[in-house]
Structures are given as C-alpha cells and as structure tokens.
Specification:
The chain is α+β, with helices and mostly antiparallel strands. The chain is built from 3 helices and 6 strands. Strands 1, 2, 3, 4, 5 and 6 form a 6-stranded antiparallel sheet that branches.
Length: 149
C-alpha cells in the first residue's frame, strides 16, 4: 500500500458492504459525513459527495438487482499527495455502464424530456472524474473529487 493513500475503514474493514436497499443509504451517508468532517471538507464539497453517492447507491438499489437480494460495496480512499478523494462502488448486479447513457437535453421542455439519465449527468457535473469498468461479474464505478488544499 502506498504511503500517500489513506483508506477509510468502516468497523475495521476497508469496504462497507450494504444490502442494495434504499434505506441502507443512511449508513453510507453517516460514514461519508464522518469522513467529510474528519477531512474538514467545505460544506458544499461534502454535499456534492453525498448527492453523488446517493444517486449511485439509489441506482444500484433500484435497478441492479431486479430479482432482489443484492448488495453494494463501497470503499473510500484519499490520495494525500494529489488531494483526490475516491469513492468506489462495486456490485454484482446487472451489468450496466451508466457512462454510456447519452446526456439528457436539459434545455428541452419538461414534457419532451426522456425519463432517466439526469442522475448520472448530475454525478458527472459534481465529481471531477467518473470511471466504470466491468470486472468479471462485478460493476465497478469510481467517483473522484479533487479537494482544494
């Protein structure tokens, strides 16, 4: 492990494993709020992280496991040299790369807009980098945010 990477732990583990159910987000929110406080992040930055995490976790919960019974794993790391915070979501749900979805036309009248796509659009605007990969049977989505010095 690189000395400049800090991995945040939840109950002694490097990864928080949650049932893929919307109500489980409360646990993730509390953990992220604690990390934001520990890093002394500006309120706005902390809110951006929570909004992005909520959107991704909600999508995993609502669409990743159509038959139910799945889980999502979340890992948080901070590169102290580059001052980049990463939140990595991993699940074994339906293979889906949200980055392949086209950008919504936010200028179109509401009645003409397609359903869906606005959440990942918002995540991309709030975060500095969003990457997806399929690793075997797992979806891996990495959100990165550069923090001001």
């Amino acid at each position: 492990m690189s000395d400049n990477i800090r991995r945040f732990k939840y109950n002694g583990e490097d990864t928080l494993s949650l049932p893929a159910r919307p109500e489980a987000f409360d646990t993730l929110r509390t953990w992220l709020e604690n990390i934001a406080e520990e890093l002394q992040l500006p309120t706005k930055t902390g809110r951006h992280l929570l909004i992005a995490a909520d959107e991704i976790f909600t999508n995993i919960s609502n669409y990743g496991y159509p038959a139910g019974g799945g889980s999502a794993n979340v890992a948080v790391a901070f590169n102290m040299n580059d001052r980049v915070l990463t939140i990595t979501f991993t699940d074994t749900g339906v293979a889906y790369n949200p980055l392949e979805a086209g950008e919504p036309d936010i200028n179109a009248p509401l009645e003409d807009r397609q359903i869906g796509g606005l959440g990942i659009f918002m995540v991309r605007k709030l975060m500095d980098e969003v990457k997806y990969q399929r690793d075997g049977d797992r979806n891996v989505l990495i959100l990165s945010k550069k923090l001001d010095a």
